[in-house]
Specification:
single chain; alpha/beta; Lambda Exonuclease, Chain A; 10 helices; binds iron/sulfur cluster
Length: 214
């Protein structure tokens, strides 16, 4: 049984998952929690009179509200603002963990990321986690869950993900990576993912910024 967060890390870098498991390092930093909490305050944040100057948002307040305006067009907007369950522990056949939101109608899950969104869809770690949570909910409820949401609340962005073959393959690859770890996997030397990685010093990779100095 894999933790959703471990599958997300495996989708990012198997070696990073090795370090996290070795160090039993699963704490959520306070800054990440603060950004995630924005996803539970949309009605307040979207109010044009709200003061966003102290909020941990990335774009300007105008751009942030414009993004939330797009999210409001989603059918699930009301359910995302008032989910049936929050921080719900789900246990599936292969994985378990927290879904930040469970939506009742249509049945779905949402994963909240403290990071920045890609141009479209979601990054691979959030995709793996969202598919894992959707599959676990489906297993618990005995019903198909056809899609999931990934929220990037520091940007006011919400993405709806259909559980496509490609996304299920990202999940399956993360499971296979997590199951195959019995020692340190190879480094992603020179990969852009290494620059923000908290393990880069002990990992010994040269970051791209360092490479440009050499
Ligand atoms: S520094 Fe790069 S290779 Fe090393 S654990 Fe982090 S992402 Fe993986």
């Amino acid at each position: 049984m894999h933790a959703f967060t471990d599958l997300a890390t495996a989708a990012y870098c198997p070696r990073k998952l090795y370090y996290r498991l070795r160090d039993d390092d699963r704490a959520t930093p306070a800054a990440v929690r603060r950004r995630r909490e924005l996803a539970f305050r949309y009605p307040e944040l979207v109010d044009p009179d709200a003061d966003l100057s102290e909020e941990p948002i990335e774009p300007t307040p105008t751009a942030f509200r414009a993004n939330l305006g797009c999210a409001r067009e989603l059918d699930a907007w009301d359910a995302l603002c008032v989910p049936a369950r929050t921080n719900a522990f789900l246990e599936g056949r292969e994985a378990h963990g927290l879904a930040h939101k469970v939506l009742a109608d249509p049945l779905s899950v949402s994963i909240v990321s403290a990071g920045s969104p890609p141009e479209q869809g979601a990054w691979r770690p959030q995709t793996a986690r969202a598919v894992a949570a959707a599959k676990a909910l489906s297993w618990e409820e005995g019903r198909e869950v056809g899609h999931a949401y990934v929220e990037y609340p520091a940007h006011g962005v919400v993405r709806k993900l259909g559980l496509s073959t490609r996304r299920k393959a990202i999940y399956r690859e993360a499971v296979a990576r997590a199951e195959s770890i019995d020692g340190p996997p190879p480094r992603l030397d020179g990969d852009a993912k290494c620059d923000p990685c908290e393990y880069r010093e002990q990992c010994g990779v040269k970051t791209r910024s360092l490479r440009s100095l050499l």
